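Sample intake sheet
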Amino acid sequence: MPFKLVEAEDYVRIPPSEFGKPLEDIALAQLKARYENRVVREVGYVVAVLSVKVKREGKIIFGDGGTYHKARFTLLAFVPLDGEVVEGVVENVREVGMLVRIGPIVGFINKIHVMDEPNIFFDASTKSYIGERTRRRVSVGDIVRARITGVSFTTPREGTDLLLRVTMTMRMPGLGKLEWIKEREKKAAPAKKA
């Protein structure tokens, strides 16, 4: 999985009610609320704020009783990469495609990219796809291996958080439901002589 540590800088406001308390504790709480579980375009999906160092000298802004301090902090971010092969759990199967959890985010696989079959049928009663030729089935809860085919950042509406969209495919050799991959590997392995 594509996790990375990122060094960042920002300002934190220390309200007068917090004066005398450890700056790092106050800053860490603020930065966690500001960044965790959010998408930052230059960083990716922020999983956690791990540590922070705060400058002791702060700035005062006229009309505001708080002080503003520069903070350097470390983020743990999830950054999916175009072309990367990932494994995930199928969370939902719909007529148009399925949602697969990869790490802390959910990626989308269009119905035509679920398996290498001429026709794929959607079974609404079991929330699964079934291949016409092989009768293979992929359902909610299955573990699959897929290749990321697209990563984009979008803002759905003015004033909303940035979203990270990931599209994937399972229509390549070595991809698909893990059971299918294991079956192919067994068939491809040379038979051992007794």
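Comment: Residues 58 and 69 are 5 Å apart (CA to CA). The chain is about 10% helix and 50% strand.
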